[in-house]
Specification:
The protein is an all-alpha fold. Helix 8 packs antiparallel against helix 9 and helix 12 packs antiparallel against helix 13. It is 74% helix and 0% strand.
């Protein structure tokens, strides 16, 4: 029909217009990039002018070919000094992303989160395709300067919008750090619940949990507080020997064992073979603790539990199958 012919004619006309524009711009883009490479590190207004012109050419070419969007990004990132004073509108979407990445690479963490956050609502197709990276880098940069709430908000956006992103594992590792920092900064019920949730997720999904002993210890203490003995024991037992949390964790395990022996004594079950075995195992653990080198005992995590371990050992001797009074008095 006449309408279809007119529509087809318009489409072909636009295609031809774009082809002519691209044919004219590509040689100019190539020439500018070569000049910029030659002038690299010299600085000056001449290089700034070339960079700004190249930016305009790249913006127009990126409408036709995604490869030019990548070149635009690289241009801004590698020559950030010449673009930092331009507005977000002049840079389009990829420009601010490149500047934010430049700040991140240089360790200028105070500036980077703000630049990344400006991109959260971007509608640019090239940004939308990289938005999981934007959220991750927002959270990472915020962690570097202790803005824990901002970091957690960024990671939440990543999980909600890109649950299958390859960056989720790394984000979970950092989320644990942010949640711990946030709770230490403000120890309220909400932040505690987030720290608890993040610790469980960290142990389950972080590909390289460097502080897994810390997470196990925190979860163990929470279960112990809730009187969930089995769950607490499981978490404390997962802490490896040599870890700063090892002996504090053993304290809670021994406390549970001593309380069990006390209950058995009250019930008149103190002479059975199983009770003797449990008593012997607990005595052996206390002996190991007592034989720790002096330097080890001087560490803060040990000095904090030392008096509690001594009282606990005295309670253990009170549960001795025979006469444990002498050992009890010596311990006290």
């Amino acid at each position: 029909t006449g309408i279809e012919v007119k529509t087809l004619s318009d489409v072909l006309g636009n295609e031809l217009k774009w082809l002519r524009e691209r044919a004219a711009l590509e040689p100019r883009a190539k020439a500018l990039l070569e000049k910029i490479d030659k002038e690299a590190d010299k600085g000056g207004e001449g290089e700034r002018t070339m960079c700004h012109e190249a930016l305009g050419v790249m913006i127009r070419l990126s409408r036709y070919d995604a490869a030019y969007a990548t070149k635009l990004y690289r241009l801004v990132e590698e020559n950030a000094l010449f673009f930092s004073d331009l507005s977000k509108e002049n840079l389009r979407a990829l420009g601010p992303l490149a500047l934010a990445t430049d700040r991140l690479k240089k360790g200028e963490y105070a500036e980077a989160p703000k630049r990344y956050r400006h991109l959260w609502t971007s509608s640019g197709v090239y940004i939308r395709n990289r938005m999981d990276d934007v959220f991750f880098r927002s959270g990472y940069a915020s962690c570097q300067i202790g803005r824990w709430k901002e970091a957690l908000a960024a990671f939440d956006q990543l999980y909600a919008q890109f649950p299958r992103s390859g960056l989720v594992g790394k984000a979970v590792c950092l989320e644990y750090v942010a949640a711990a920092g946030n709770y230490k900064q403000a120890s309220n019920r909400t932040n505690y619940a987030r720290y608890l949730k993040s610790s469980k997720k960290y142990l389950k999904k972080c590909p390289n949990p460097r502080d897994k002993d810390g997470a196990h210890f925190f979860l163990g203490k929470d279960y112990e507080k809730q009187k969930k003995g089995q769950e607490a024991r499981k978490e404390f037992s997962a802490i490896e020997e040599g870890s700063p949390q090892y002996w504090p964790a053993r304290y809670y395990i021994l406390k549970s064992d001593v309380e069990d022996l006390e209950r058995r004594k009250e019930s008149g079950m103190i002479g059975g073979a199983d009770t003797r075995r449990r008593y012997g195992a607990a005595v052996s653990q206390f002996d190991r603790f007592q034989r720790l080198p002096k330097a080890e005992k001087g560490k803060p995590e040990i000095t904090q539990i030392l008096p509690h371990m001594t009282i606990l050992q005295a309670r253990l001797f009170g549960c001795a199958p025979g006469d444990g009074c002498t050992e009890l008095l010596q311990a006290l």
